[in-house]
Design goal:
elongated; about 375 residues; 13 helices; six-stranded mixed β-barrel; 2 domains; alpha+beta
């Protein structure tokens, strides 16, 4: 019977390929949009992911997400250092400045100023140069993507063909000279702006002078310190809020989820993908069962049990679901691998295939259940009368 069920399925090639196409497209749309959404959300806290040294991120209580800068007083660093349970605390500057290249091109870029002494907060993945080179005069480190795209020079100094920015080149940050001493690899930001690292004091010189320049304070806990007690102490003594890296990332994602239309836009596309599967594959499978009722009726008349017939329908639905899901998720992965790095936010996590598989299973289960209901109510005599 299983062989006969598959022959019935493959024999109706028009409907079989139509069901595969419907399920594959539904899986592709659901998984692709989900992967892009996850990629975008990951970019919102990419700097937290790249900066693993601090145990606590200390910011103004009204700061809603990572890039919602609410500068602190410079005395905040000393106040944090005085709290029991804090082993070290360093200032961090994070802001946007205008960058001018030697070929005259200008670009707004994200400037990150890290502690001069410890260099905590600096890039974790250096491709050229060394993090300690930041201690050189006018030194900056540039993200590799920016050096190849936004900072690519169309008219290099001294002439020659267009080329990427490289170590030894100079630029101007807010009309102040800066020299590239290293190339790093940083997680792309949500706004896709170039990322430049320098020291905290040098960033103060690059940035327009303000009364408050400390964007956040990064802190490390003493061995054995209770993180919750230290966080409560910071809030009581300074009025500032302290977050672990995971908490700060969740706070940032929560803002983008609740305060923007991004989830609704991607959610609409995902729901449409599900209904495409229902409208195309689900309906076609139900019609396939209806057109084959005469064969089910003949087998029932020859003594086949209802469980045998139901098993045949289940096998046909499972075969279509497995093949359609495989084609769809494979196409999604191929799409993700074909993208140039950094061009489009795309991150495939293990939950996405499970969600897509659940949607395909639901579509095929619902259509198979309707078909089974017709098979169970089938009277062989009605089939022969119709013949």
């Amino acid at each position: 019977m299983p062989i006969f069920a598959l022959k019935m399925l493959f024999g109706d090639s028009a409907r079989f390929y139509g069901m595969l196409l419907g399920l594959a497209f539904s899986t592709l749309l659901i998984s692709q949009q989900s992967a892009i959404f996850v990629g975008l959300m990951t970019r919102t806290f990419g700097f937290v992911t790249d900066t693993q040294q601090p145990d606590l991120w200390i910011a103004d209580p009204v700061q809603r997400f990572l890039d919602d800068n609410k500068p602190l007083r410079s005395t905040s660093v000393q106040r944090i250092r005085s709290i029991t349970g804090i082993e070290w605390a360093v200032p961090l500057y994070k802001g946007l400045l205008s960058v001018a290249l030697p070929d005259g091109k200008r670009q707004m870029s994200q400037i990150i100023g890290v502690d001069d002494a410890s260099l905590i907060g600096g890039p974790a993945r250096m491709l050229e140069g060394s993090l300690t080179d930041l201690r050189k005069p006018d030194a900056i480190i540039v993200d590799i993507r920016a050096s190849q795209r936004e900072f690519r020079m169309t008219k290099p100094p001294g002439g020659g063909p267009p080329r990427d920015l490289r170590v030894g080149d100079t630029m101007e940050l807010n009309d102040r000279r800066a020299e590239v001493v290293g190339i790093c690899k940083a997680t792309q930001t949500f706004q896709s702006q170039p990322v430049i690292y320098t020291t905290y004091n040098r960033a103060m010189g690059f940035a327009p002078r303000e009364r408050r320049m400390v964007t956040m304070v990064l802190a490390g806990l003493s061995p054995g310190a209770d993180v919750h007690r230290v966080k409560d102490t910071i809030r009581e003594k300074t009025g500032l809020w302290a977050y672990t890296g995971d908490e700060f990332a969740r706070k940032t994602v929560g803002y983008w989820m609740s305060e923007t239309g991004i989830p609704i836009n991607f959610g609409t596309a995902i729901v449409l993908g599900f209904f495409v599967g229902v409208a195309v594959a689900g309906q076609m499978f139900y019609n396939f069962v209806l057109d084959n009722l005469k064969y089910f009726g003949a087998m029932k008349a020859m003594g086949a049990s209802r469980w045998t017939l139901l098993g045949m329908v289940c096998l046909q639905a499972a075969t279509v679901a497995f093949l359609g899901f495989g084609i769809g998720i494979g196409s999604t992965c191929a799409f993700g691998l074909s993208l140039p790095e950094g061009r489009l936010a795309f991150r495939m996590v293990w939950q996405i295939p499970l969600i897509a598989a659940g949607a395909v299973t639901l579509i095929c289960t619902a259509s198979a259940a309707l078909g089974m209901w017709r098979v169970l109510r089938l009277d062989p005599a009605d089939v022969f009368k119709g013949a």
